[in-house]
UniProtKB/TrEMBL annotation:
Residues 51-71, 85-135 are annotated as: Disordered. SMART domains: GAL4. GO terms for molecular function: DNA-binding transcription factor activity, RNA polymerase II-specific; transcription cis-regulatory region binding; zinc ion binding. Residues 7-37 form the Zn(2)-C6 fungal-type domain. It comes from Aspergillus carbonarius (strain ITEM 5010). Signal peptide: none annotated. It holds the Pfam family Zn_clus. It is found in: Nucleus. InterPro entries: Fun_TF, Zn2-C6_fun-type_DNA-bd_sf, Zn2Cys6_DnaBD. Its main location: nucleus. One of its GO terms (cellular component) is nucleus. This is Zn(2)-C6 fungal-type domain-containing protein.
């Protein structure tokens, strides 16, 4: 007997296993909720960007090719008691998890409550109806709507630096309306970032939204969104297929962004998203469109965008904390990513640079790494080859050298955000390669050059690092401005 012949609307909406009992399934009976079933049954598509956006059109086709059938495996989640309580009851106050804080009255308790009004379902509607293919969007409070809009208009572009399709600006806000973990990740990131703005800037933004009196985002609201996202992610962590869900990967990298912002506010910043990011990246690194981008040059999805954001986040954290990469470089994506060619798009070319930077990070900070001169020279050669192979689009359209003695930083103008990421990553690589040159490090062991030449070499390294830091600081200042 099939495990799901005709799931009820609630189980279908939340991707839960339905026991198909009549007249009420066990979940609805336990929750005291009316068990509603509808005909006809529809097949849900796997949540990749291409199928997600084109699901309505594809559903009307009479036949599906063999290649498409392999994608028709929806992610199904196991509902734990905690998740069931989250669906049917108002979220608990933060006092249960954070003794010093309580839930804000302005934060929603009804977001995923099935008793709230939903989009009506017409059994006679065409299978291509959006309401029949996708669950209805969540009913947002004013605070949530403002934070979602803030993410779409302000924060999304921070994620989309190397994404020509701008998925975090255009796709993620819409996906968040029907994906609870993604929505809470977006709300927590927006709330934390918005709360760091000066009050006049906050008022300017909210007045732009038509709120003349402004909007106060409390610390309780921010923590509630974060804790609720963690609860959602934990509830699906035991489901193997969930690790391949691109919406959940997007939620994890967004939550990681929140924790990066949250670091100055807590002496011991949370590391939940760090561990989750490692698990999701390792699982999704084997996806064919990730491992073979040259075979799918025009198939850039939310999965690609979120995956490479995660790699970039890990590189920046490893550099700033002077630690090795916490993602194994044996991952298929890191060990077999194709070298850029003349026709490689710029954003994919930048990804190959991030992989090289990961190798440099491991050389510098991994105690198990071989810090031989041969390995070092190989990294320098690969860095130089990457730079020499770059097309003219990576060259800034305007440049000033700056004057260090006068405190004037260099200024570079680039036409694309991915070119800025490349320049910044090269700056970091330059600092690391200068500081970990084994020929210089060996001077302290009495190896290599004489005393006079050794002193000159150390001074040369010092100038190289200083110039790289100066260049990087100038780029950061002008990018922020």
């Amino acid at each position: 007997m099939p495990s799901r012949r005709d799931p009820c609307q609630h189980c279908r909406k939340h991707h839960l296993r339905c026991d198909d009992n009549r007249p009420s399934c066990a979940r609805c009976q336990t929750a005291g909720r009316k068990c509603v079933r509808s005909r006809p049954r529809f097949q849900f598509l796997n949540s990749t960007s291409a199928e997600y956006e084109g699901g309505a059109a594809e559903a009307s086709k009479p036949e599906t090719s063999a290649g498409d059938k392999c994608l028709d495996n929806p992610v199904e989640y196991v509902e734990t008691p905690a998740l069931a309580a989250h669906h049917h009851e108002p979220p608990p106050s933060l006092s249960q998890s954070t003794p010093h804080a309580s839930a804000s009255p302005s934060t929603p308790g009804h977001l995923w409550d099935t008793s709230s009004p939903a989009v009506s379902f017409d059994p006679t509607a065409s299978p291509t109806s959006l309401t029949s293919i996708h669950p209805p969007p969540a009913q947002l409070t004013l605070e949530e709507a403002c934070l979602l809009r803030y993410f779409a208009e302000t924060l999304g572009k921070w994620f989309d630096l190397c994404d020509p399709e701008r998925h975090f600006t255009t796709v993620v806000p819409q996906r968040a309306r029907t994906c609870p973990p993604l929505l809470d990740a977006v709300l927590s990131a927006s709330a934390r970032h918005f709360s760091t703005l000066p009050p006049p800037k906050q008022l300017e933004i909210t007045r732009k939204y038509g709120l003349q009196d402004g909007l106060t985002i409390t610390e309780q609201s921010t923590l509630l969104y974060h804790n609720r996202c963690i609860a959602h992610l934990r509830s699906v962590s035991e489901e193997p297929n969930a690790m391949m869900d691109e919406n959940l990967l997007a939620a994890v990298v967004t939550l990681r962004f929140y924790e990066e912002l949250d670091t100055p506010f807590h002496p011991s910043p949370p590391t939940t998203a760090i561990h989750g990011l490692q698990i999701f990246l390792e699982a999704q690194s084997h996806h064919p469109t990730i491992t073979h981008p040259h075979l799918h040059p025009h198939h850039w999805t939310l999965r690609h965008s979120a995956f490479w954001i995660g790699i970039r986040q890990e590189f920046h954290m490893a550099f700033s904390h002077q630690r090795p990469f916490r993602l194994p470089l044996s991952l298929s994506i890191l060990s077999s990513y194709p070298l850029p060619t003349l026709t490689t798009p710029d954003h994919i070319r930048v990804n190959s640079l991030l992989i090289l930077c990961a190798e440099i990070i491991q050389y510098c900070f991994d105690d198990a790494s071989s810090r031989s001169i041969t390995t070092y020279d190989t990294l320098v050669r690969k860095r130089n080859e990457w730079v020499s192979s770059c097309p003219g689009s990576f060259v800034p359209i305007y440049s000033t050298p700056g004057k260090m003695a006068e405190g004037v930083f260099p200024n570079r103008w680039y036409l694309e955000e991915c070119h800025v990421v490349a320049a910044q990553s090269l700056c970091f690589a330059r600092i690391l390669l200068a500081g970990f040159d084994p020929r210089v490090l060996g001077l302290g062991l009495g190896l290599g050059l004489g005393r006079g030449n050794g002193r000159n070499k150390m001074e040369e390294v010092g100038r190289e690092v200083r110039d790289a830091v100066w260049e990087g600081m100038g780029r950061e200042i002008h990018d922020i401005c």
